[in-house]
Amino acid sequence: xxxxxxxxxxxxxxxxxxxxxxxxxxxxxxxxxxxxxxxxxxxxxxxxxxxxxxxxxxxxxxxxxxxxxxxxxxxxxxxxxxxxxxxxxxxxxxxxxxxxxxxxxxxxxxxxxxxxxxxxxxxxxxxxxxxxxxxxxxxxxxxxxxxxxxxxxxxxxxxxxxxxxxxxxxxxxxxxxxxxxxxxxxxxxxxxxxxxxxxxxxxxxxxxxxxxxxxxxxxxxxxxxxxxxxxxxxxxxxxxxxxxxxxxxxxxxxxxxxxxxxxxxxxxxxxxxxxxxxxxxxxxxxxxxxxxxxxxxxxxxxxxxxxxxxxxxxxxxxxxxxxxxxxxxxxxxxxxxxxxxxxxxxxxxxxxxxxxxxxxxxxxxxxxxxxxxxxxxxxxxxxxxxxxxxxxxxxxxxxxxxxxxxxx
Length: 408
Hints:
Order of helices and strands: HHHHHHHHEEHHHHHHH
Number of strands: 2
Shape: elongated
Structural class: mainly alpha
Radius of gyration: 26 Å
Helix content: over 70%
Distance between the termini: 72 Å
Strand order of the largest sheet: 1-2
Mean pLDDT: 77
């Protein structure tokens, strides 16, 4: 997700514009165009990222509030809730980082005792480790989301007890992802170390992160192992799984739609329910595609940084701020996706935050909107399956009656 989360050395030199020596090295090697772009954007990155983080934190709080309502409790919504929690933690960590290293002390500012104090550099290490962990959690939750939705389409829940069992299983899966993501990154945590340095002009002590020499001939073996582990466990493997299950998801939803339209001769009301079901799947596919667009290019760039000499300094660092803001936007836009593609989410959000008057009961049904949403959620799968079963039974009764008439 973040270049600072990918490598500790990257965090110290967080943008090429943060280090004058790196700029000079890259200017001759990269032709200058990419460097000019990196320097220009770095001047605005802090303010843009702070705005995106604030927007994302607020909207993810909305997501959690809506998705944890009683009538919204499903395995998929449980995963989306903890995805929002992970995104909030990431953006909360990024706010003070962007404020200090981009806004208070601009990217082109030289190193100083205030900018590179021991406290702030320790916070940088904390931010690196936390961002790496939460991002690994987020991408694997997205993999789990694709798998759970695929299994639901293949074998829809036919009873409330089965739905509750799947929610319980999802809780265990989410807990496993959070714990294992932290454990697998322990070697990465241990590689981040602060080193004291002295400013030549004033002889004052500052602190910097250890140079890992990534992409150089003298790169340590353990550094390369950490890079490859991170690239595969947090980037390439989850992206591959999302591609596989996302493709299966698309294929199966189209097969289900064709089968139901052909066998059941769906009426208008049934078509509406099927359309809602399809929109939910498309919404989840949009979330998966956003993760793929954000993470897959970063995984490729990480591999190239480890394999191609000087690629890390000449290309990866210069694109770092852009990758950061793309990842932050990905964390912040889920609320927009949910509102635009899920009727149930949108109606619940409006009821919770935009409706300040008590809901009147319908004269026809006697139920409020909340009652209807609760009934819709708790029985949606059962009602749809029962409705389709009822139509199928009527269809075969009709065929049997016609067959008896023909025989008579």
